Amino acid sequence: MKKIVLVSIITVVCGCSTITPSHGPADATNWIIHKASISPYNRWQAIGKISVQTPQYSGSVRLTWKQLDDDFSIILSGPLGIENILMTGDSDEAIFHYKGNSKVGSPSKLINDIVGIPFQFSALAYWLKGIPSPDLTQKNLLIYPDGQAHKFEQSGWSLKFDNYKPTPFGSLPRTILGYHNKQSFKLVISQWSKIKI
Fold first, then answer.
1. Is the four-CA dihedral 38, 68, 151, 170 of positive or negative sign?
2. Which of 48, 96, 102, 136 has the most CB atoms around its CB within 10 Å?
3. Rounded CA gap, 189 and 107, in Å?
């Protein structure tokens, strides 16, 4: 009876999300606790590297992402002629600067223009932390016994999270893999830090 009640509570709390516990209801409870502890952090810096693969393009760039509440700045640098692309903005509008030129548009469109992959930009800041965006439907969640996400699907992407490490915000994934049709990306985060005002 207690297990039925617990599963019912979890179903109500998670709404339309699908939880597939790796071992049992206790793991799903750990997921709810983990997600609640990670979600509030919205002032951070992440440094890493992103590799993308499409039928037309493959390559990798270094990434420095600073998030300050709704505002962000992202610096991309690397091979193939990419030298310090700076993109700043919020969830609605952004501008990127490159070699003296600038372009304004939605963050999702600008990211697509830069790396050639159709990301839902608002979801990326959550995926970096190994949690789904609360604004999009998420399904097929598979969790580790201690409550961290191993896999889920969102916005047409199949996402896998591995190599969790301690950070100032709790345990976050070091490696994130994403697959969407014939497109894929691998994001490796080497450093997390807090931003103080």
1. negative
2. 96
3. 21
Give Dmax (Cα) for the chain. Answer: 66
Those residues with Cβ within 8 angstroms of residue 12's Cβ, 6 or more apart along the chain or in another chain: none
Please report the beta strands in the chain, taking only residues with DSSP state E, as ranges in sequence order: 19-20, 43-53, 58-68, 71-77, 85-89, 94-98, 101-105, 138-143, 149-154, 157-167, 170-180, 183-194
Task: Tell me how far CA of residue 52 lies from CA of 65, 116, 195, in angstroms.
Answer: 17, 8, 28
Burial 47-65 (b: 16+ CB within 10 A, else e): ebebbbbbeeeeebbbbbb
pLDDT digit string, tens, across residues 16-34:
344 444 445 557 788 999 9
DSSP output for 111-144: HHHHHS----HHHHHHHTTT---TTS-EEEEEE-
Provide the pLDDT confidence category of residue 84 given band limits of 50, 70 and 90.
confident
Check if the beta carbon of residue 92 is closer than 8 Å to that of residue 78.
Answer: no
Query: Taking the CB of residue 13, how many other CB atoms lie within 10 A of it?
Result: 13
